[in-house]
Design a protein that fits this description.
- The protein is an all-alpha fold and 68 residues long.
Length: 68
């Protein structure tokens, strides 16, 4: 079995000033919930997991969060 693992790194500087990000921060204070949901929707909308028994929510994990 082949396994593919990708890493996406975003900072608030990448997202700041966008209405999407402002709304995301209002939801949980960090924006994490909205970002995760957005990535899940992108995967679901692409149908890339159509033949899998997994859902997008099962394959996306937050590995690290820091506030400096």
């Amino acid at each position: 079995m082949k396994k593919f693992k990708f890493e996406i790194t975003l900072t608030d500087e990448d997202l700041i000033g966008d209405e999407f990000w402002e709304d995301a921060l209002e939801r949980d204070g960090t924006g994490i919930a909205v970002l995760k949901e957005t990535f899940e929707n992108m995967i679901n909308d692409s149908n890339i997991l159509i033949s899998s028994d997994k859902d997008a929510k099962d394959i996306i994990k937050l590995i690290n969060y820091t506030e400096k």
